[in-house]
Structures are given as structure tokens and as C-alpha cells.
Backbone:
């Protein structure tokens, strides 16, 4: 590949030149793509691209699960979220002089042993009066559509010998009544029909008369669920997922699989919350399912459970891929549960899961599947054990026990392992070594990195061992939601496809986010209570997922790439929930020439600029102190180091707070920087991070902490693209950031059914790319169907506008060799018919 | 991983430092040209109504809404200023009072303004005052109609309204939870002067380098329908010398509630000019000259680049006016900020 240097200044100037469609025939091409149509590249499996559903960001309750009542079973507790009570989302209500009290009760009158809390209404209404509760739903309330039907149901018992009349009122629908008779639990149901369309509705359940009325499982479902399934899924969200044509559905997590207690929801364990996701909690009648605290800070009802997941996978034509806990936690918890009997129980649970999915209706768990409405097997073939564990040895030992048991019972079953939470590092290396040595079928990799990482690592899988474990890229995204992020992902995906013999499956993550309950971003599909919309990456994933092809045709590209630049720019100081003092800040050339110095003995911080206006900085006692222990990222910067070789030295003292120091270098005007995070992650880990704002990837990391009151000598030696870090004179780490960035990427596949070539070109830079495509003499039609995603690289798709959309046209000028100009900041798919 | 960045958060640090102290002294102003009105920012001048131009704008104390009136634009310079509304001592609207605009709709006057809360001066939301009196300077007529409710509750400001082809629109600036910028621009149709009929459509987000200097801001929209197009100017970046005006354009026949109907001019149209010593021109409105035809650009700018302390508390954003001319292709030509009060 010939490489000509693309100057940084040229990139900035090119922002003006984003107009596409300039005829390019006369110009020398910037790039050439040469296809070998007769060579056999790797076959691309149907499972190449899929989706990863994790119950994060209210993805299940308040999201994909169509239930409209929040906290329908009164099970919410402070253990789920400090703000929760049994009456979260409910408020007592009275009408026409009604009176009473509404409390939740956890006593022997409960609906069943696994549905422990219910609503107890002590009614004291005079004749005609009504008293009860109102539910506020999710987001701004209940979203109802004029003409649509809604199924209300409730479990109830009344100790009033005359019975109790319940009035069920949904905003925008005619109220209905239910007569509750008898003091034993019974399910009552009624249909409501909306006469208005609104998204601010409330559901009231009000009882007349006197006595004690007990209610549980107060439910309201739209009739219009995805494919009309009972206990079903919200249609617009399910359809957006289905439109991706996912090859697989990984579920249910994520960190909620490998965090919390591995014990059961039972009396022996005190009905604990914060348990790892255990599939048996989530099947059978919904009123008998356990409840749990979700790792992401809320309650999960398990109304959306394993049956519903398997049914959904079948409905969208995706291979189901469950993830079960390996009894080793990750996601910051990092504990191994050493309980051989419990391990054996979980291994048996996993075997039982396979029986639930595939077993005959005469089997115990296959019978439950049949009773839930699906006598035919679901055809489960893959299972992942573990999510992203940080204790490689303990995890892998358990994984091997699961794998042995599953393979013994089900030869040919694929049991997927993983490589921890990052794209590299000690855990990654250790796990890959173990997986390779043990001959594991497939390894799940997870990484969330900056766009530049994706542009620098297109060739990542070119170097993977073709005979080693296959790769499941189960979670990845570039960190932000702009078109530029999606283009970096797209460029990277060409590398995934080119390596389809190694990378057998890939899924962007996370999939869903409720706009008012976000724990992680970016996300693929967003929603509130009545609308949903796809991010720019949703559009990009959809373009790739609906134009995969069956086989790669080997192709090469030549043209300009972006060479690494030396690390220059301002230096910076910051803190994260920590008060700290910095002093004697110096930047010196290797020959001793001072480039910057501030010892703060002049009593001021002149020359320092506030970058993130948070925290409280002041110069006292000849040193620079940040004294706010709550503020996160209080970055101030100074200087503009243009030298490529320099040493940054300073003294740092922690005064109070949760973490240590953040010392930045290579700080750009755009906000891009490197910082050495000393005593990060609650003073457990050190790292060099690179990026801007909240989008920082880890360059290197290892355990590290700092002591309050001790003064540390911090030294950062920058030599072009190589950096050496010293703490108190000892080398702490080093790294080289010298990867070439490839903003132009391509892959060519063949669609066997249509005979089309699919030429996929990503131009993730702010200049058009005049490109000559040589199809190796292949006879092709003169026109092609072209789909382009392009626009302002800083744009986002949000609830208020979705400016980034694919545009499909028919283009001419196609031949065995042709030249096209691919617009700045674009992804272009050409479907070319062969003759 | 959350953004949680809005202008309020960003400003908290500097606010804390200022609490209980005097506003910082501004650098000495060396005015190249006397402005139309000193120390009035975010200026708004109506078209003449019954022979009178009315003016309103932000005052440096951010504590009240003022209106001036005069038979000529030049006359606004010395016209008596009437305080038509003062912020309450506590509660809602007791915080910063920003960027009022005065609109005549169906025989009544409306003031659109942004206000923070007394205990959180940067919790800015949009509010509407109404007066049935003929003279908007008369404080007696003004009644609070309330807050303009938007689809989500967040930092929102700078509402402006215009009628086009039988529909009345509101355009405003607001932060949106998915977007890590301070404010984007939104449009919706109104069902009455203080109520949105439709869900908001985002028509501009700060993405380009000139829109994200200091803060990531699109704000201060102003609409002008001419030559078969709807032009919307807006201001971008921090309110220092980097503040500038950008331009959105839609076809007059287009559905203004579609994001795709709007095109952002890639470069700013009105920026700091060293020759005229005009720094950070922006937050404009449009009126017409005495002939009723000549378009007039109303904006604020400072006479100096360097500011001591937070630009928000430097009082010397002065109201300035100049002619707005038109290019042969029908697009507006803003020229450079001349900084004065005319000639018009």
C-alpha cells in the first residue's frame, strides 16, 4: 500500500469542501480498489451480524416489554434503587368522598411465595365514594392511541362479604368496573378501548365501599404487541430490531449476568435482591416469577423472561444466544463464588435451559415450554458462559466445567467463552491464552473505544490465528453518537467482514435506551413512551446487516492513510471526586531547555485555562489546589508544547476524596487529550486514557493507588509517539501510540441468491475520495443500486430529528473498471449485478 | 458514562466564585463608534407599530424586562426605558432574566423571555407575558401567561415567533438529553402564543468549529422571510469574542417542521471584526428602516476582545444596528459589524 502523508491542517481545511458528487473522471484517483473476483474469500455466516439485548437503560421494563404499568407487582424496594418503595409509580387517590389507606404488605396473605409483596387497601369510603391508587407509567405516563385496545388484569381478594367494585380508569378511555368477590386470590380482567391519542395518561384502580382489598399484578397491556403475542413486546421497538435482520440475539446481558449473588430467590437465602440473572426465575406464569434488583440501578420484573426472549429470537429469525453466569462476577465486582454445590446447581440449570429450549414436551422443562405456548423446540445451538470476567483463572476454571457438562450432554453444542472487558491487556492476554490452549470454539470480545481506535485497527483480525478459537465480537461501539462515530464503526466492520473466517458474529452494544433512564451511551435505538428512533449507528448497522452477502471477494485498496503524529499540545491537571494539590509543574526538553514552568510561588495561576468549569481551583501556599471532592474532571490546562520530545514533571499530593491524580498531556483545542489516571476507579487502578470528554479509551492500565497526604513525583517522558511514565522515579509504564489511521476502508462480497457484488466503501474523512474500482475483468451491468449514508459528521439522530438516513438511488457508469467519487464522511454500498 | 453537561452545570463553578461579590469590573471600553444603546444585549426591535419602534433586550443585572419606544430607530437611543416586569424575589423566574422579545400577535402584545429560578439562576426556561394594552411600555397591561412547555424539561431559552403561510411558529434554543452540547435550535407550530401544537423538530445543532468555541451553542434565533426563502439567523459559541452569527435557510414552500428542509451555511455570516473593533457580534433580530423596506440588522457586540472574568457578567454588550443588504441570488449579505447606530 502506498502511503502519502495527510497533513492535519489539510483535514481542517477540507471541512469546507464536503460537497459531494463532483465529477471525478479527469482527476487522478485518490484510491484504487482492486477486486479478485475469482479468488475465494471467506464465507460469511448468516449469524455474522446480530443484536445484543441487555436490560440496561430500561430496555426491558419500560422498554421492549410492552407492560404499561410500572411496579405492577409492588415489589420495588430500596435494594433496587435507594429512591424506590413498594409504592413507587403509585399514588393514593380518592374520588367522590372516598377514603382509606394504601400500603404495601409482605405477609402471609401474599399472592405466592415468589411474589411476596402486595397492595393492601383499607377501605373506609361512604356510599358512592371510591379510594385506590393511580399509576404514573413510564416517562410522561401511559401512551395510548385512539381506537386501540388495552387488556387490564389484576389479582385481587376482598374481605367484604358483599364484594368490592373496582373502577378501572385509563386516561383517554371509558372506565370499566370489576366486581371482586371472595377473600382468595383470583385474576380479573377487562378490556379498555382508547378514544384519544395521548402520551401523558394515568391508570387508576379505585375501590368502593369498605373492608380490606388486596391487589397484586396490576397490569395493562396493549393488544397491539409485536406479532400479537400475549405478554408480548412493544411493537415499534421490536420492529426496529427486526428491521436489522439480526443473525443472532444475545441476551439477557451484560453485567446483569455476571454480577451480584449467585444464590437463589428463596427462603433459605432470605429472598435476596441483586442476584445474577438466573433463567429459572424468569419463566412460567408472570405472577410466579421472581423479581430482582437490576445491576443498572432499577428493578427488573422478569416479565420479559427466557421464554419471551426465545420467542422473540424466533420471530425475528435470529439465532438465540443466551448468556449464563459462571459464578465469577465482573463489572467492577470481580469476585469468585467458591461453592462447588452451587456451581453444580448452575451447571445443571444450564443443562435444564437447553432442555427448556430444545427438549421434548414430555421432558420436565420442555413441558413447561409447551405449556407456555411453544411445543416445538426453539433449536438452541449456542450458549455463552460468562460475560466479561476480570478474574481470568477462576473464570476459566468454571467455564471449563460448564463446557464439559454441556458438550457431554449435547455434542456439537457451541459453548462461548470470553476475553474480559477490554480489547487488550493482561486479562485479555491471559484469557486468550487459556481459550487457545483449551481449544475453545469461540471467544466473546468486548470493547468501547474512540473513533480513532476503530480507524487505526481495521487490520486487527488479519493477524488472528485462522485455526484458533473463532471470535464473537459481542459488544463494541465507538464512544459517542455522531455520524463520525458510525463511520469509524463502518470502516472497522469492513475488517470484520474481510475476516469472516475468524469473526463469526458481531453486535453493536447497547441496543436500547429509554431517553429518561440512561445508564450508558451511546445506544442503538432510543425511545420514550410513544416514540422510538434509531441513532446514526442504527442506520449504519442496518445498512451492513441488510447487505451482508455470502462470501468475501478478496480486494485490495491503495491510497492515502493518516500517519501518526507526535504527541504535542497543552499540559493539564485534573481531579475526579478528589481534592489534590499540584506544584512545581515543569516541561523540559531532553537537553534541559525549559519549555514551561509554574511553581505557583507568584501566588497566581496565570497561564492556566479552565477547560472543564467544575471544581474549585486556587493557588495557596505556592501550590495549585483543587479542593472540591465531589466534582468530576476539573481539567485546567496550560502551555502549548510544540516540541515533540519533552518531559513533564510535577509534584502531586492527594488531600481528600475517592481517587488520585489526573495529569494530562497532548491536550488539543478539540478537547482530545491523553491523561495519566493515577489512583482511578476509586483508587484501585491506574491508566493512561486517550480521548475527549466522556469518550476516553484505555491505552494502558494496571492496579494502582495513592496515599492521602503523600507527595508523589510524577514524570511523563514524551518522545514523539512514545511515552514513558514514572512515579516517584520508578517506571510505572510506557506505550507507543504510532498506529496508522485508515479513514478509507472497503470490502467486497457476493450475494449468492442475486449474483450481485456488494462493494462497500467507507470514506471516514472530511474530503471526497476519487476512487477507481477494478473488478478484475468481471462482466457487470452498467448500472448499480447504490445506498449512501452521509452528512455532517457531527450530526446525530435524536427524538427531535433524524437527519442521518440512507439514500438509495440507481447509478450508471459501472463497468469492469470504473471511477466514482465517494463523498466526504460517507459509507456507500454498491450492489452490482454480474452478467 | 453520562454527559449531563448543560450550560447550568458548566457555569456552576464560576457562579460559585461570584456569589456574594460585586460583578467584576469590565475592561475599559474604547468604542470605535457609539452604539445605538449601551449595555443592552440580545437586542430586539419591533417593526414600527402605529409609527413607533419598540425595543427590548437583556440588562446586565438580568433582573427585569424593559421596553423603550420611539418614532425612529435612532430615537430609541435616548428614549425613556420602562420596566414592564421584574423578577420575583424567590421561586420560579427569580433567577437570570434573559433575551426578551416583543411580538404583536392578534391585537395583543407578547413578551417571550427566558428566566432562571431564584435558587438556581441558570435553571433557564421560557416564559410568556401578555398585554392587551396598545402601548407595550405600560407595565399595567402585562400578565404572565406562563411557561412554554416543551416535550422534555431542560435548559431552554431565546424563543422567537413568526407567522408563515397561515401558521405561527416558535423557534427556540434548548439542550437535549441525547446531545452533548449546550443548546440546539428547535421549531414547532404554535396553537396559541404560549402553547406548542406540535412536537419539536431540531433544525440546528452546533457541530462545526465556529459553533463550539468555549460552549457548544446554537441560540438567539431570528426569522426573516424573503425571496422565496425562510432565513433563520442564530448565534454560536461562547458569549465572548468568539460569538458569531450563523444562517439557516429553508425554501418558503418547504415543510418548516422537517429537519431536512433546513440547510446550514457552512461558515458563519457575521463575526468579530478587528478593523471595526467589534467583538462577538450576535443575538440579532431584524427590523426595517423608516422607509418600511430597508432591512435592518439589530445585534449586540463589544468594543474589546479581552474580558476579565465570566463574559456573562461583562456588561458591555451594546445594541447596534446596521443595514442588511441582499445578494443578487436572493441571499442576505451581512457584511461586517460596523458597530454603530447606522446610517440606515
Residues:
Amino acid at each position: 500500500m502506498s502511503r502519502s502523508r495527510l497533513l492535519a491542517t489539510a483535514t481542517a481545511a477540507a471541512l469546507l469542501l464536503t460537497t459531494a458528487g463532483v465529477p471525478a473522471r479527469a482527476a487522478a484517483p485518490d484510491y484504487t480498489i482492486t477486486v479478485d473476483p475469482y479468488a475465494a474469500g471467506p464465507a460469511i455466516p448468516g449469524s455474522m451480524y446480530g443484536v445484543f439485548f441487555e436490560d440496561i437503560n430500561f430496555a426491558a421494563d419500560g422498554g421492549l416489554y410492552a407492560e404499561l404499568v410500572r411496579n405492577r407487582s409492588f415489589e420495588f424496594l430500596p435494594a433496587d434503587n435507594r429512591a424506590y418503595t413498594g409504592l413507587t409509580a403509585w399514588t393514593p387517590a380518592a374520588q367522590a368522598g372516598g377514603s382509606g389507606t394504601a400500603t404495601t404488605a409482605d405477609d402471609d396473605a401474599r399472592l405466592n411465595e415468589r411474589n411476596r409483596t402486595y397492595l393492601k387497601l383499607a377501605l373506609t369510603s361512604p356510599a358512592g365514594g371510591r379510594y385506590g391508587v393511580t399509576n404514573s407509567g413510564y416517562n410522561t405516563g401511559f401512551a395510548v392511541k385512539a381506537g386501540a385496545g388495552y387488556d387490564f388484569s389484576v389479582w385481587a381478594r376482598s374481605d367484604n362479604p358483599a364484594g368490592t367494585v373496582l373502577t378501572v380508569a385509563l386516561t383517554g378511555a371509558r372506565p370499566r368496573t370489576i366486581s371482586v368477590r371472595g377473600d382468595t386470590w383470583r385474576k380479573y380482567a377487562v378490556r379498555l378501548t382508547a378514544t384519544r391519542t395521548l402520551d401523558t395518561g394515568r391508570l387508576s384502580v379505585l375501590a368502593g365501599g369498605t373492608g380490606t382489598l388486596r391487589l397484586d399484578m396490576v397490569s395493562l397491556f396493549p393488544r397491539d404487541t409485536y406479532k400479537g403475542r400475549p405478554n408480548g413486546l412493544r411493537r415499534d421497538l421490536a420492529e426496529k430490531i427486526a428491521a436489522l435482520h439480526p443473525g443472532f440475539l444475545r441476551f439477557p446481558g451484560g453485567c446483569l449476568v455476571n454480577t451480584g449473588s449467585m444464590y437463589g430467590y428463596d427462603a433459605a437465602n432470605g429472598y435476596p435482591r441483586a442476584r445474577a440473572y438466573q433463567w429459572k426465575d424468569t419463566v412460567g406464569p408472570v405472577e410466579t416469577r421472581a423479581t430482582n434488583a437490576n445491576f443498572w440501578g432499577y428493578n427488573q420484573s422478569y416479565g420479559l423472561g427466557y421464554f419471551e426472549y426465545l420467542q422473540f429470537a424466533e420471530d425475528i429469525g435470529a439465532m438465540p444466544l443466551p448468556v449464563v453466569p459462571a459464578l465469577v462476577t465482573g463489572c467492577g465486582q470481580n469476585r469468585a463464588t467458591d461453592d462447588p454445590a452451587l456451581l453444580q446447581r448452575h451447571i445443571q440449570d444450564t443443562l435444564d435451559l437447553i432442555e427448556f429450549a430444545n427438549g421434548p414436551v414430555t421432558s420436565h422443562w420442555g413441558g413447561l415450554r409447551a405449556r407456555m405456548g411453544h411445543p416445538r423446540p426453539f433449536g438452541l445451538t449456542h450458549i455463552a458462559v460468562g460475560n466479561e470476567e476480570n478474574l481470568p483463572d477462576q473464570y476459566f476454571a468454571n467455564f471449563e466445567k460448564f463446557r464439559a457438562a454441556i458438550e457431554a450432554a449435547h455434542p456439537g453444542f457451541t459453548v462461548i467463552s470470553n476475553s474480559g472487558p477490554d480489547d487488550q491487556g493482561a486479562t485479555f492476554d491471559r484469557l486468550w491464552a487459556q481459550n487457545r490452549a483449551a481449544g475453545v470454539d469461540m471467544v466473546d470480545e468486548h470493547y468501547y473505544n474512540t473513533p480513532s481506535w476503530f480507524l487505526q485497527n481495521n487490520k486487527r483480525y488479519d493477524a488472528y490465528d485462522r485455526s484458533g478459537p473463532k471470535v464473537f465480537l459481542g459488544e463494541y461501539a465507538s464512544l459517542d453518537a455522531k455520524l463520525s462515530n458510525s463511520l469509524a464503526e463502518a470502516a472497522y466492520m469492513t475488517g470484520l467482514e474481510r475476516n469472516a473466517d475468524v469473526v463469526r458474529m458481531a453486535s453493536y452494544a447497547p441496543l436500547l435506551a429509554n431517553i429518561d433512564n440512561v445508564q450508558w451511551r451511546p445506544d442503538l435505538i432510543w425511545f420514550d413512551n410513544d416514540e422510538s428512533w434509531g441513532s446514526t449507528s442504527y442506520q449504519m448497522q442496518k445498512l451492513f446487516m441488510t447487505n451482508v452477502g455470502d462470501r468475501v471477494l478478496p480486494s485490495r485498496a491503495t491510497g492515502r492513510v493518516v500517519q501518526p503524529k507526535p504527541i504535542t499540545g497543552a499540559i493539564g491537571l485534573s481531579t475526579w471526586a478528589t481534592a489534590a494539590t499540584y506544584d512545581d509543574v515543569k516541561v523540559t526538553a531532553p537537553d534541559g531547555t525549559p519549555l514551561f514552568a509554574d511553581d505557583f510561588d507568584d501566588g497566581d495561576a496565570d497561564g492556566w485555562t479552565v477547560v472543564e468549569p467544575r471544581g474549585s481551583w486556587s493557588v495557596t501556599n505556592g501550590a495549585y489546589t483543587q479542593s472540591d471532592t465531589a466534582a468530576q474532571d476539573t481539567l485546567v490546562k496550560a502551555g502549548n508544547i510544540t516540541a515533540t520530545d519533552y518531559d513533564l514533571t510535577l509534584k502531586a499530593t492527594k488531600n481528600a476524596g475517592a481517587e488520585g491524580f489526573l495529569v494530562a498531556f497532548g491536550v488539543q483545542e478539540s478537547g482530545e487529550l491523553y491523561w495519566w489516571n493515577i489512583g482511578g476507579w476509586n483508587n484501585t487502578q491506574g491508566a493512561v486514557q486517550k480521548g475527549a470528554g466522556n469518550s476516553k479509551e484505555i491505552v494502558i492500565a494496571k492496579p494502582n493507588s495513592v496515599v492521602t497526604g503523600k507527595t508523589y513525583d510524577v514524570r511523563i517522558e514524551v518522545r514523539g509517539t512514545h511515552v514513558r511514565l514514572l512515579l516517584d522515579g520508578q517506571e510505572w509504564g510506557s506505550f507507543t501510540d504510532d498506529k496508522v489511521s485508515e479513514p478509507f476502508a472497503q470490502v467486497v462480497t457476493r450475494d449468492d441468491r442475486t449474483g450481485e457484488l456488494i462493494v462497500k466503501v467507507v470514506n471516514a474523512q472530511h474530503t471526497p475520495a476519487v476512487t477507481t474500482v477494478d473488478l478484475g475483468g468481471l462482466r457487470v451491468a452498467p448500472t448499480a443500486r447504490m445506498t449512501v449514508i452521509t452528512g455532517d459528521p457531527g450530526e446525530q439522530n435524536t427524538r427531535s430529528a433524524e437527519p442521518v438516513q440512507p439514500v438509495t438511488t440507481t447509478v450508471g457508469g459501472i463497468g469492469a473498471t470504473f471511477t466514482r467519487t465517494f463523498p466526504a464522511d460517507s459509507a456507500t454500498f454498491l450492489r452490482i449485478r454480474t452478467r | 458514562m453520562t454527559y449531563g453537561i448543560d450550560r447550568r452545570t458548566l457555569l456552576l463553578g464560576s457562579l460559585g466564585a461570584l456569589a456574594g461579590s460585586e460583578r467584576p469590573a469590565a475592561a475599559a471600553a474604547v468604542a470605535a463608534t457609539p452604539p445605538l444603546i449601551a449595555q443592552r444585549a440580545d437586542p430586539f426591535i419591533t417593526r414600527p407599530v402605529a409609527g413607533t419602534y419598540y425595543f427590548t433586550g437583556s440588562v446586565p443585572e438580568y433582573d427585569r424586562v424593559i421596553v423603550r419606544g420611539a418614532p425612529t430607530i435612532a430615537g430609541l437611543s435616548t428614549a425613556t426605558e420602562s420596566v414592564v416586569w421584574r423578577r420575583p424575589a424567590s421561586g420560579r423566574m427569580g433567577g437570570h432574566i434573559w433575551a426578551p422579545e416583543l411580538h404583536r400577535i392578534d391585537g395583543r402584545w407578547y413578551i417571550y423571555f427566558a428566566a432562571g429560578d431564584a435558587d438556581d439562576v441558570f435553571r433557564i426556561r421560557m416564559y410568556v407575558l401578555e398585554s392587551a394594552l396598545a402601548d407595550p411600555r405600560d407595565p399595567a397591561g402585562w400578565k404572565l401567561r406562563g411557561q412554554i412547555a416543551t416535550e422534555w424539561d431542560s435548559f431552554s431559552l431565546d424563543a422567537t415567533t413568526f407567522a408563515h403561510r397561515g401558521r405561527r411558529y416558535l423557534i427556540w434554543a434548548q439542550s437535549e438529553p441525547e446531545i452533548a452540547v449546550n443548546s440546539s435550535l428547535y421549531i414547532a407550530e404554535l396553537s396559541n402564543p404560549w402553547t406548542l401544537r406540535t412536537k419539536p423538530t431540531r433544525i440546528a445543532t452546533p457541530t462545526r468549529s465556529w459553533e463550539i468555541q468555549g460552549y457548544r451553542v446554537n441560540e438567539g434565533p431570528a426569522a426573516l422571510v424573503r425571496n422565496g426563502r425562510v432565513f433563520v439567523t442564530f448565534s454560536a459559541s461562547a458569549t465572548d469574542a468568539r460569538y458569531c452569527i450563523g444562517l439557516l435557510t429553508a425554501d418558503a414552500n418547504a415543510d418548516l417542521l422537517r429537519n431536512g428542509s433546513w440547510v446550514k451555511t457552512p461558515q458563519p455570516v457575521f463575526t468579530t471584526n478587528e478593523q471595526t473593533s467589534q467583538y462577538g457580534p450576535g443575538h440579532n433580530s431584524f427590523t426595517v428602516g423608516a422607509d418600511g423596506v430597508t432591512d435592518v440588522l439589530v445585534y449586540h457586540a463589544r468594543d474589546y476582545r479581552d474580558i476579565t472574568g465570566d463574559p456573562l457578567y461583562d456588561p458591555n454588550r451594546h445594541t447596534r444596528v446596521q443595514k442588511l443588504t441582499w445578494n443578487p441570488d436572493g441571499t442576505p449579505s451581512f457584511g461586517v459589524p460596523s458597530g454603530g447606530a447606522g446610517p440606515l
Q: What stands out?
A: DSSP finds eleven helices and 50 strands in chain A. The interface with chain B takes residues 12, 15-16, 18, 479-482, 515-516, 518-521, 526, 610, 613-616, 631, 693-694, 792-796, 798-803 of chain A (CB under 8 Å). Chain A has a mean pLDDT of 94.
